[in-house]
Fold this sequence. Notes:
This protein is of the alpha/beta class. The protein has 9 helices and 6 strands, in the order E-H-H-E-H-H-E-H-H-E-H-E-H-E-H. It has helices at residues 22-28, 31-43, 54-57, 66-82, 105-108, 110-127, 148-163, 176-179, 205-208; strands at 8-10, 47-53, 85-92, 135-138, 171-174, 195-198. Strands 1-2-3-4-5-6 form a 6-stranded parallel β-sheet. The longest helix has 18 residues, at 110-127.
Amino acid sequence: MTFKVTRGTNISHWLSQSQRRGAERRAFFTQADVHRIAELGGGKLDHIRLPIDEEQMWDKVGDRQAEAFDLLDAALDWCEEAGLKVIVDLHLLRTHHFLDEEEPLLFSDPREEGRFAGLWRELSAHLDDRSTDSVAYELLNEAVARDPEDWNRVAQAAYHAIREQEPERTIVLGSNWFNQHHTFRDLYVPEDDDLILTFHYYFPMFITHYTAPWWADGGAYSGPIRYPGKPIAR
Length: 234
């Protein structure tokens, strides 16, 4: 494996989970921000995770949104110039959101599985000239299939779509149900030297999700918290 990372940061609400467009979107994340990240901690950060959403990158009929692809390309250029690696993360789909209350269509409609693989086939074709040392692909953020075998099936469709074109690109694969570490036992992992397994660890939730409005069980709490120890003193 040539793509190796240690410490990095996530670039939220730019090409993902944002209604910003036009000048406002272009100004939200710039080359100056990349240089700042590269300098943080005396240069100890070596990568960014760059989430992108389907609805930002493609319109409803599947045509590319030119400005969004231009911004993606610019970010990759900025990072290459700054010596930062990039994990391109397909974050949200029109048929999959990690907070979906019902089974996402991605897992129940075979056409959506094929369309998801097609998105990665198109991204791979667009990005395949990028060095495998500097750019990796994360298949999907926090899959929430009710049956983990459905995620295994869908993930493999996207995995093979990339491998058809890029046999040596590093692919980042997370387990089902919010990429939790304990769901790895249900994850199918291909025999592949260019594969990184990822998990998300949010505990203690009262620290990591303090006042987060989407956390139904505790996001409304805005009182004092502490760490280490019990986040809420009783």
